[in-house]
Amino acid sequence: MFDTLSDRLTSVLQNLRGKGRLSDADIDATAREIRIALLEADVALPVVRAFIAGVKDRAKGAEVSGALNPAQQVIKIVNEELVGILGGETRRLEHAKNPPTVILLAGLQGSGKTTLSGKLAKWLSGQGHTPMLVACDLQRPNAVTQLQVVGERAGVPVFAPEPGNGTGDPVDVARRSLDEAKRAQHDVVIVDTAGRLGVDEEMMRQAADIRDAVSPDEIMFVVDAMIGQDAVSTAEAFRDGVGFSGVVLTKLDGDARGGAALSVRHVTGQPIMFASNGEKLEDFDVFHPDRMASRILG
Ligand code: GDP
């Protein structure tokens, strides 16, 4: 997904190599090219501004250090600023002191929530946890069945309304799932909610009602990196409508430019926690800002 951005940044920084000294004009020219590369990759404007300002300030004020030549110093600064924009430290999942840990997934329809439920469950099972999935998307025909298929593939149980009661109340299902988790000793509950194709008040209200019913330890906003600039406005709408403690980027295997998704952390102030890069249950990992920055800078 970040190949073009990566190529552009690598070539901008490559141009600095071999220069014995960098003037302010060199730094300004480099900053300008980085700015264009970021904008072309769909990185949101406020994020580009913050990034460029950080790089310029630090590059101009940098002491010439013995170990690094000027080009290497700028590369180091660009890398550190990128890690900063992506969130700095890796943000780990917070588990509840008194299980079950409740994770609520929210996001637009098609963002990858149901698939993510299975991925998270499988990943948690691999760490010795005993997760259970909860079907609270009762709007879309087949959503419950789809979660059941995902649960089966991941080898974890799914709590869903009884057959024939497919139009049940998702808030009630969510509430009852906690009793079931305690009874059957599941230490993590992953609640899949209904999304719509676009931001919609009814969807937000329902997600907020489910949130109030289960007091989640984590609310994850799931966003398809392929939706481009809409990723930022959708994130803002979910932040205001439901609130979230972390972000999951999906479809990073796609060929869109992806910069908007990378902007979500800076714009909303909430960390990117996981990344999904394929349809298989294994195509999933914890998001490490430093590794992503290294990948982008080649
Ligand atoms: P939901 O509506 O939010 O529950 O989204 P789904 O989990 O049903 O996913 C929508 C579509 O995206 C499905 O066809 C998934 O197989 C696909 N999908 C989910 N995550 C990824 C991903 O990381 N990469 C790719 N290529 N496809 C994905």
TrEMBL record:
The protein, known as: Signal recognition particle protein
Similarity comment: family membership: Belongs to the GTP-binding SRP family. SRP54 subfamily.
Enzyme Commission code: 3.6.5.4
Domain of life: Bacteria
Lineage: Bacteria, Bacillati, Actinomycetota, Actinomycetes, Pseudonocardiales
The keyword Glycoprotein is annotated on this UniProt entry: no
Gene symbol of the encoding locus: ffh
Keyword Metal-binding: no
Residues reported in the UniProt entry to bind GTP: 107-114, 192-196, 250-253
Organism: Saccharopolyspora gloriosae
Domain comment (free text): Composed of three domains: the N-terminal N domain, which is responsible for interactions with the ribosome, the central G domain, which binds GTP, and the C-terminal M domain, which binds the RNA and the signal sequence of the RNC.
The protein's assembly and partners: Part of the signal recognition particle protein translocation system, which is composed of SRP and FtsY.
Keywords: Cytoplasm, GTP-binding, Hydrolase, Nucleotide-binding, Ribonucleoprotein, RNA-binding, Signal recognition particle
